[in-house]
Amino acid sequence: MLLTTATSFLRPAPGFASFIFVHRRNQLLLAGAVVMAMIKMMVFKHFFPYMDFTSDTGSYMETTLKHMDYNIWPIGYSRFLWLFHQVSHSETVLAVLQFTLLEVSAFFFYFSVVYIFHPESYFRYGFYAFLLINPLFPFLGNYFISDALFLSLGLTWITLLLWILHKPTTTLLVLHGLVLGAAFTIRYNAMFYPLVALIPILCSRYRRWQKITAILLPVVLITAFVLFVRQKSYEHAGIRLFSAFSGWQMMNNSMYMLQYVKIDSTGVPAELEPMHKLVYQYCTLLKQGKGRIDPSVGSAFMWDNGGPQKIMLARYNQAHPGKDTYTGWANVAPLFGSYGTYMIKKYPWDFLHYYLWPNVKQYLFPEMEVLAAYNRPYMGSNLQNVAAFFTDGAKEKPVGKYGDIQLTLMAIFPWLIVVCHVLFLEETIRYLIRKGIRRTSRKFNLALLLCWTFILLNFGFSVFAAPIVLRYQVLLIVLLLGYTLLLTEVIDMPERSPEEIAAEDERAMLGI
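-> structure tokens emitted (512 positions)
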């Protein structure tokens, strides 16, 4: 139980491995998870026998096959695919591997929370049931994109932070740094993860030098990766650039407000004038009847072949014949980033009204995007390269067996995000009103603060800098649901004496 007797805190708890593999109830829970995962994957593969693609797939495939150290998307997933290629060339094996990584990381989180906080009802069985029946993991694992790997690393990273609060060791310190560094190479959303990690690290029982090391290790790894990519970009494209995508995204985001405002051309810096003329012409056409584009579409402007960004890219390619796609993208990205930043600073309130506020609503109810349908039939250019990547992908396999099932199942999850936000906020307020901070251990309160910090930073990053789609918010769903169940259990249990709480904190200090 989350709330146990004071004497039980003085008895050493079994090791984590014994807790899972020796304890009878946990043996059954683990066995049930393994059997259900196997059944779930076999049933899923009956309905959806082939991996799915998105527009990002071609970039990952090209980066892997050409051994590139740079590209529009982060190269970490391509390195993972290269390692996979040393063992197997089967798309079915890749789908099973990605699904397995998701299941293992999710149940690592589950059993760690059970071991550390001792829940006995809502979380132990409610969250377990969610993991058993959750259809998101098979679908995410079946995509030839980085989402499954990034989510696996994210769940592992959060779990390691809980372990740092519970029983900090040098091994955990190193593992945390490696996992966080690896996550950043998969997707740049992880750039705010070191800020979240400050809470458990600074509040842990580490010595001062260990805390400094725990903070600096992921920063050093991330910095080394950034410098490596910048150098490789310079060697290939002649420009030291870490993320070609960020400049494109910044200008894309500013375009959502520019299609509404009366654009003032006075004072535009000389280096931005050619770009500004294209934007003015494009937005004028939108206002005259082409129709406004809603932020829910995501990165619509940067992919529009008739839009100012693609036109400027075409001009660069025309002036520099023979250059590859990445070189063009990278060399125009700084211009796009500067223009987007300039316009956001010039029209801050319009940016808030026409982009940030719609994104807030989008955050609470994200688009299903590629998860809404089976996309492989429409990825013809990628299908041409499948034979080079998979031995069982040589033949065109245009459709899954039961495509409508995907839309029906995925339509549940945007609503689940809304419900989880409401319930988590309600349970947090109830927790504060009933003085839950005084009724629970320091370790639990820090874990709750950790969750809130992640939610707020994820909210800020998503609303301002990233496309908001369902597949980017799966870690949020897991945390909201898990912590809501934990909070409910804490609030509904009887109060403890200060002595019992002190005994639990003492037990945490001893790492028991």
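The radius of gyration is 25 Å.
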